[in-house]
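Weekly structure sync - notes
Attendees: PM, LS, DV (DV joined late)
Agenda: review two folding runs queued last week.

Item 1: First target. Sequence and structure tokens pasted below for the record.
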Amino acid sequence: MDRTFDFHGTLVTIKSMTCETGGIYTILYAVHPPNTGPALHVHPRGSECFYIVKGGYKFILGNKLIDVTPGDLVVVPTNTPHKFTVGNDGGEVLIISSPDLENYFSQVSSLLRTGTVTCEMESQIAQKYGQVFLESTNHWK
């Protein structure tokens, strides 16, 4: 598996795979272009943490809207609906997430290199690896 790849225009690097953490979590580093972000989703297998390295982000976390900047940490409890939008200057974030999530990013990235990924396809892959979308996956555009 490639450790660094393009995922909908975001450069994702797998820092630690689930198999390297005893099956407990995965660590990712993402370099986001401006004004992008995922659809609203939850992680039923575990919590997710975002350490903001560069840029500004707006998070929806449950029923809260949170503005974050470098040095901030966002902790998303298990099954909490969340999404974010990257600010106008893009951003960089370190993500500690539930097990196997790196496989979602890697598989969707591989499919994007060879063709189109439908919303349904991406939702199925996401669910297989512990991410459940709560709205359309027509995101990262």
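Item 2: Second target, run right after the first with the same settings.
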Amino acid sequence: MGILLRVLLLIALIIIIYSFWRYWNNSRRKLEAAHHKKQFYLLDDHRNVRKNLLATHKGVMFEGEKYVGTTEKAFEVVTISLWVIESEHLRGFQREDFTFLEREILSLYPEAAIEWNSPVKEFMQQLEAKQPEKQ
């Protein structure tokens, strides 16, 4: 009876340790932690094009939809449409923050063109309209 109890306790301990390990390595948890700490984190499943990518940077959460098309070599992700999940958190964001996000995403999908949705799209268009005046 004592040996059976020890075996059951050992099995329970192994299950608890495994559950904690799964929780700690959960990428969704890492995304939420980075979001609350206002750090950068990119959550994406490269093998599944149907799954949207999620990114957080400086406390703002972004979601992106991937579109597959043909390139000279193969079928690749050719367009990524990005939008802000909560646009009220964009306060203080600058062009450099958006270009940082673009660089990080393009490092994973070099063939892709990034399209921003509203309100970031309008912000980028305003910056591009003002840029020729400075030159």
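Discussion on item 2: The CA atoms of residues 4 and 10 lie 10 Å apart.
Action: LS to circulate a short write-up before next sync.
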